[in-house]
Design goal:
Layout lengths: L6 E4 L2 E4 L17 H4 L16 H18 L14 E7 L3 E11 L2 E10 L6 E5 L18 H11 L2 E5 L28 H18 L3 E11 L1 H12 L3 E7 L24 H5 L7 E8 L9 H11 L6 E9 L4 H15 L36 H18 L5 H19 L9 E5 L9 E7 L6 E6 L8 E7 L15 H6 L3 E5 L18 H4 L3 H17 L4 E8 L3 H9 L7 E5 L8 H7 L10 H8 L4 E5 L8 H10 L5 E4 L5 H8 L5
Parallel strand pairs: 6-7, 6-8, 8-9, 9-10, 10-11, 15-16, 15-17, 17-18, 18-19, 19-20
Antiparallel strand pairs: 1-2, 3-4, 4-5, 5-7, 12-13, 13-14, 14-16
Helix pairs in contact: 2-10, 10-16, 13-14, 16-17
């Protein structure tokens, strides 16, 4: 029976009180946990959920930008090394020129391409980036369906400086062998994958354009088709220096991008390309589509969704769409629409007839290829060296951020709290958004069996609650998390429940995602599974947070303890960092090798977790309440926990034991008096 705002337990059973009547309505919980039954993927049709207020959108936009940055390894912010740009091989073509370019996006790793510059015009000029798609010849593709040189030449003639650069493994980008080949999964722990590296190359390409004396750094645009369209809208999503954007034939509600260079773990959790594309608002955006590919419905579906955000911000006129009656392309018709768009917003010319494409003739490939007849610079690193160096730099960055004083702790939390939250892809729910549904088969005098979940999130978590005899107010609630589920906590010879009840605790346990009665097989064969779906570990951490919120909402509960048994201790230690102040937390870390990628891959796989600081960050984010970590062995590093408690001046509240403590000793610690 639902009729209030709290969840109460009586001797007769559970009365579930919510706060969802009225406009939101009563949604209940699904019959099965949809996290196991509904697998998201790149070809799933997505809908755009409209935003009712500007405030709501801006909050979502900030959160989504950070999600993209965290998932691609770009948060915390990556240090920018010197570009060391080389521009050479200039060829004059009358009203434009072509030059060869290479510069370092990371030390020893090169971005390569061509500069198209106006001749006979006075600058400074707008700067345009043109990332190419998956055309056979990349930035040199020149056919009726797509001409990247034609795009660069005509934009230069019209008064722009254009940088056409190679995507990974195309043309002069020789240091990467194959951008379609998956990296070793250990790199995903650090947010390292081809999409993120390519996005960083695009960000550094903005740096390069802005470094040129003939470029107006306040007038930067970007356009690309297909995979270049993906780069275009991702770059504009995270880099506000891009003032005008024209992604071509890519923003679709039912095809999110089929290449590994368009998918990275955690990137599209709870989102899709329509919402990401809307992050351009309120900057001018032209959405170009084609009748013969996955953008065929753009005028009817995707564009109205994106434009709704522009209208919300009072900038409806800054978003437009154009569709060509053609297959997947960047043909002349599409290019001319883009010329007119950039002309309007970057050159101040509203007459589209001024931007008709002029005929052009290309020279030999030697005029374009950066390393034609020459070797890579001596400082060039191999793919393996670049990837290893990137991982090491991320590891050093976390260590360099290690707080030494209260100011350092504040800075660390500012940077790393969103990193850990987005890596885990979890959040502490508003207790009013937690619902509970009773199970009719609850045993008289035993546990109260029920399911909990968050409104509208599709989760359904089996739970059990035990009440101590007599006492009904000012209770200490202890949440028990076991890797085999709640049934393992009631074993006659190893019960955790009865001793806690005898000491007056309210006891709760859950079958965290895919454990105990919640075991379910998910089809995880999709190579981009983690781009769209959370891992089991992430879901388990969320279930712990949801259970804590459930207990916090109960009027008879005065304080909440969290206990993680076995590997449930690892999940609980991560959840503790994002929960409000728990009274006592006791975790078994199972001799986990916290400094080894291998251990995370085998026992605690969460993409980007190590880039987000893993347990180091968890130590610094959680309030310094009473904490007992045991079974550390020689493998689990507790130095950051010790330092966190030293900075808080509460070293007496932290206890660390290298051995696994007996259950009786653990139970005694939980029921001690004091804080």
């Amino acid at each position: 029976m639902i009729f209030g705002k709290k969840i109460l337990l009586t001797g007769a059973g559970l009365l579930f009180l919510s706060g969802f009547a009225g406009a939101q309505g009563l949604t209940g919980l699904p019959e099965m946990d949809q996290r196991a039954t509904r697998i998201r993927h790149l070809h799933l049709p997505y809908t755009f959920q409209p935003f009712l207020t500007e405030e709501a959108w801006l909050k979502r936009a900030g959160d989504l930008r950070r999600q993209i940055e965290v998932s691609t390894g770009l948060w915390p912010p990556v240090e920018k090394s010197p570009l060391k740009a080389r521009i050479f091989g200039k060829v004059s073509k009358g009203d434009y020129s072509i030059e060869k370019v290479f510069f370092e996006s990371y030390p020893g790793f090169y971005v390569t391409g061509n500069l198209y510059r106006p001749v006979g015009k006075k600058g400074p000029f707008p700067g345009i980036l043109t990332p190419h798609g998956h055309w056979a010849y990349g930035r040199l593709e020149n056919q009726s369906l797509a001409s990247m040189p034609g795009l660069g030449i005509n934009l230069a003639r019209q008064g722009h400086v254009v940088f056409a650069y190679d995507m990974l493994a195309y043309n002069d980008s020789r240091q990467v062998k194959d951008h379609r080949r998956p990296l070793d999964r250990s790199f995903s722990l650090w947010g390292i994958d081809w999409l993120g590296i390519q996005l960083w190359n695009s960000i550094r390409s903005v740096d390069f354009l802005q470094s040129l004396s003939d470029v107006d750094s306040d007038r930067i645009g970007c356009t690309g088709a297909s995979g270049g369209g993906t780069q275009t809208f991702l770059l504009t999503a995270v880099d506000d220096r891009v003032k005008v954007s024209a992604p071509v034939n890519m923003i679709s509600h039912y095809m999110q991008g089929g290449c590994i260079c368009e998918n990275q773990a955690n990137l599209r959790l709870d989102t899709n390309n329509m919402e990401i594309g809307a992050l351009m608002a309120p900057r001018p955006l032209l959405m170009v589509s084609a009748s013969g590919d996955w953008t065929r419905e753009t005028p009817r579906v995707e564009f109205p969704a994106v434009q709704s955000v522009y209208r919300l911000l009072g900038a409806g006129h800054k978003a437009q769409t154009m569709q060509s009656m053609a297959d997947h392309n960047y043909n002349r018709e599409s290019r001319e629409a883009v010329y007119a768009w950039f002309g309007r917003w970057l050159l101040g010319e509203s007459d589209a007839s001024q931007f008709s494409e002029k005929r052009f003739r290309l020279g030999s490939p030697s005029e374009f290829l950066v390393f034609f007849g020459r070797d890579l610079p001596e400082s060039a690193v191999t793919e393996e060296e670049m990837l290893a160096s990137l991982k090491d730099s991320f590891r050093r960055q976390i260590d360099d951020l290690r707080p030494r004083d209260s100011e350092g702790l504040s800075r660390f939390r500012e940077l790393m709290s969103p990193a850990l939250q987005h890596a885990l892809a979890v959040g502490y729910p508003d207790p009013c958004d937690v619902m509970a549904v009773p199970v009719p088969s609850s045993k008289p005098g035993g546990s109260r069996e029920f399911h909990i979940g968050r409104v509208g999130r599709g989760d359904r978590v089996p739970a059990a609650l035990w009440f101590p005899r007599g006492k009904r107010r000012n209770l200490t609630a202890t949440l028990l998390v076991h890797p085999e589920g709640k049934a393992a906590l009631e074993a006659p010879d190893a019960s955790w429940v009865r001793p806690l009840l005898a000491r007056g605790h309210l006891v709760m346990s859950i079958d965290a995602f895919n454990t105990g009665a919640a075991q379910a097989r998910r089809d995880m064969s999709d190579p981009f599974f983690t781009t769209y779906n959370r891992t089991d570990v992430s879901n388990r951490v969320q279930d712990i947070l949801t259970a804590v919120a459930f207990l916090e909402s109960r009027p008879e509960v005065a304080r909440v303890n969290l206990v993680g048994v076995g590997k449930g201790g690892l999940w609980s230690l991560l959840a503790r960092a994002l929960a409000p102040q728990l009274h006592r937390t006791l975790v078994d870390v199972s001799n986990f090798s916290s400094g080894e990628d291998r251990a995370y891959l085998e026992h605690l796989y969460v993409p980007v977790l190590r880039r987000a600081g893993d347990f180091k960050t968890a130590a610094m984010l959680a309030p310094a309440t009473r904490l007992l970590i045991h079974n550390t062995g020689e493998s689990f590093n507790t130095d950051w926990f010790r330092q966190a408690y030293e900075l808080a001046g509460k070293t007496g509240l932290l206890e660390i034991e290298s051995d696994e403590l007996p259950r009786e000793q653990v139970l005694s610690w939980l029921t001690q008096s004091g804080p």
